[in-house]
Write a structure and sequence with these properties.
- By secondary structure, this protein is of the alpha/beta class.
- It has three domains: 14-71; 77-386, Spore Coat Polysaccharide Biosynthesis Protein SpsA, Chain A, CATH 3.90.550; 393-494, 3 Solenoid (UDP N-Acetylglucosamine Acyltransferase, domain 1).
- It is 26% helix and 26% strand.
- The chain contains twelve helices and 26 strands.
- It has helices at residues 17-39, 45-71, 91-94, 137-152, 167-173, 222-228, 231-237, 257-266, 307-311, 328-336, 393-400, 433-439; strands at residues 80-81, 88-90, 107-113, 130-132, 135-136, 158-162, 184-188, 192-193, 195-196, 214-215, 242-247, 270-276, 286-290, 293-297, 318-327, 345-353, 356-364, 378-381, 404-407, 410-413, 423-426, 449-455, 458-460, 465-473, 480-482, 487-494.
- It has an eight-stranded mixed β-sheet, sandwiched between helices. A four-stranded parallel β-sheet has the order 21-22-24-26, with helices on one face. Strands 1-13-14 form a three-stranded antiparallel β-sheet, with no helix packed on it.
- The radius of gyration is 24 Å and the shape is globular.
- The model is unreliable at 1-18 and 497-502 (pLDDT under 50).
Length: 502
């Protein structure tokens, strides 16, 4: 492997001479370290070539990070404008068109399946957490596509982008669908080395180094991973034109024929589904017009003095659901011309080395940020029902509740429900799925609930009904049991502080 440092974007003013030189040195040291890392591969030639290609991709990302850091690349807030009317379209304007079922032959569906359930206290892929009636996220995704294929006599394939963390478990799990009416393919996203924050050198020194020395570089890696795996060319050879991408934990992200038809009619290469912001989504990325180009603005890019303005739901009304519709040939064109550079997200982590916590960096990208590279790209503002992610046990309570019913693998809102989904905040006692399940072993009825906050050592009984605003706060050292059959409506329940003897 060899690499040269691209200096054309580095400022040459004397003010930045030191920073530029430092960047060049860091890039050179990284290149040498990556060469040694590549030499540590003991496998066959194919395995080594694949690993070298990933290290090359990582080095390009790392070098670009250094250049942008030294040049102080930031957005000019004054240039940020609301999108033009043709850059953000209301779903209602496209929903009136008749559906063209034959377009399903041009579609493939991809679920981002690289995440672990560690934030919810689970071991293994997040997609295997039980969500509803004994079904996991993966089960429901399969049921959705299987029903679609049966209903329209189509053959829409399902792809899973795994990470090195989820690959083995997922491969084992999808064997049970071999008799189902669905073609499932999986491939791995890249495996990049974490970087020590102080030395800016890679954490791993060997191909077989510990798992915590590596990281999957975010879902922005989708494009390169799809191309490198051969799945991109295979889909194009099958006549597939559009890839519908969504997070594996978003149960609202079903195939929508109206959006598919709209994309093919307009010739757009990229459509991002947006939905209206609420108080719970103020940090969500939003589409903007910047220098006459549609772009995704993330909270991390916003200067501190403009954060409140960014969170203002009157100014920035919509946010990115990460339901994306992307033209496959456009992906191939942009990858093969090396034109798909997206904003880098430096993610700070800590790992343990020699009994001490050490600060490391992992450089990630998001596939939503790629929107500015595609022709005719725009957003479609969809109903909130298409955004039902499960990031926490608070979200899990929502999707397990009577607020929704299950239909062919998709969650449908109870027609009795009026208004937006309730805001649910469960405290740290409910962070892990196991704790959540023991404390709320029977999901309460919440069709008429607006807001729920529970903190502390609280247990809910059977057949509990929650309405309006319910706040349950248990003081430290206390315990609150909500009895079976309780109906709580617009109440605040607190436990008195108990002085524990020592």
């Amino acid at each position: 492997m060899s690499g040269t440092i691209n200096k054309k974007h580095i400022k040459t003013q004397s003010t930045y001479a030191f920073e530029s030189n430092t960047s060049n040195v860091a890039a050179s040291q990284m290149r040498n370290a990556l060469n040694k890392l590549a030499d540590s591969v003991q496998g066959d030639e194919e395995e080594r070539a694949r690993f070298e290609a990933q290290l090359d991709s990582f080095f390009s990302l790392f070098r670009r990070y250094l250049v942008e850091k030294s040049s102080g690349n930031t957005l000019d807030w004054e240039k940020i404008k609301s999108p033009n009317p043709d850059e953000v379209v209301a779903y209602e304007t496209i929903a009136q068109q008749p559906e063209n079922v034959t377009n399903l032959s041009k579609l493939a569906v991809l679920k981002l399946n690289g995440g672990l359930g560690t934030s919810m206290g689970c071991v293994g892929p997040k997609s295997v957490i039980e969500v509803r009636d004994g079904n996991t996220f993966l089960d429901l995704s399969v049921r959705q596509i299987e029903h679609l294929n049966r209903q329209y006599d189509s053959d829409v394939p399902l792809l899973l982008m795994n990470s090195f963390n989820t690959d083995k478990d997922t491969e084992h799990l999808i064997k049970k669908y071999s008799a189902n009416r669905i073609r499932i393919r999986s491939f791995n996203q890249s495996k990049f080395p974490r970087v020590y924050k102080d030395s800016m050198l890679p954490v791993p020194t060997d191909y077989e180094d510990k798992l915590d020395a590596w990281y999957p570089p975010g879902h922005g890696d989708l494009f390169e991973a799809l191309h490198a795996s051969g799945e991109l060319d295979a889909l194009i050879a099958q006549g597939r034109e559009i890839l519908f991408v969504s997070n594996g934990d978003n149960l609202g992200a079903t195939v929508d024929l109206k959006i598919l038809d709209h994309m093919l009619q307009t010739g757009s290469e990229y459509i991002m589904e947006l939905t209206d912001k609420t108080r719970a989504d103020v940090k969500g990325g939003t589409l903007i017009n910047y220098d006459g180009q549609v772009r995704l603005l993330e909270v991390a890019q916003v200067p501190k003095e403009h954060i409140d303005e960014f969170k203002n739901i009157r100014k920035f009304k919509n946010f990115n659901t990460n339901n994306l519709w992307i033209n496959l040939k456009a992906i191939k064109r942009l990858i093969e011309s090396s034109s798909l550079e997206v904003e880098i997200i430096p993610n700070k982590k800590t790992i343990v080395r020699g009994g001490h916590e050490v600060n490391v960096l992992q450089l990630e990208t998001a596939c939503g940020a790629a929107i500015r590279h595609f022709n005719g790209a725009h957003g479609v503002v969809v109903p909130r029902s298409r955004f039902l992610p499960v990031k926490t046990c608070s979200d899990l309570l929502l999707v397990k509740s009577d607020l929704f019913y299950l239909q062919h693998g998709a969650l449908k809102l109870d027609p009795e429900r009026f208004g937006p989904n309730p805001l649910i905040k469960l405290g740290s006692h409910f962070k892990k799925v196991s704790d959540f399940s023991s404390r709320i072993s029977h999901i309460p009825k919440i069709v008429e609930l607006d807001h729920l906050t529970i903190t502390g050592n609280v247990f809910l009984g059977k057949d509990v009904t929650l309405r309006g605003t319910v706040i349950i706060v248990c003081s430290e050292g206390q315990k609150i049991d909500i009895p079976n059959g309780s109906v709580l409506e617009n109440v605040v329940i607190t436990g008195n502080l108990q002085i524990l003897e020592h």
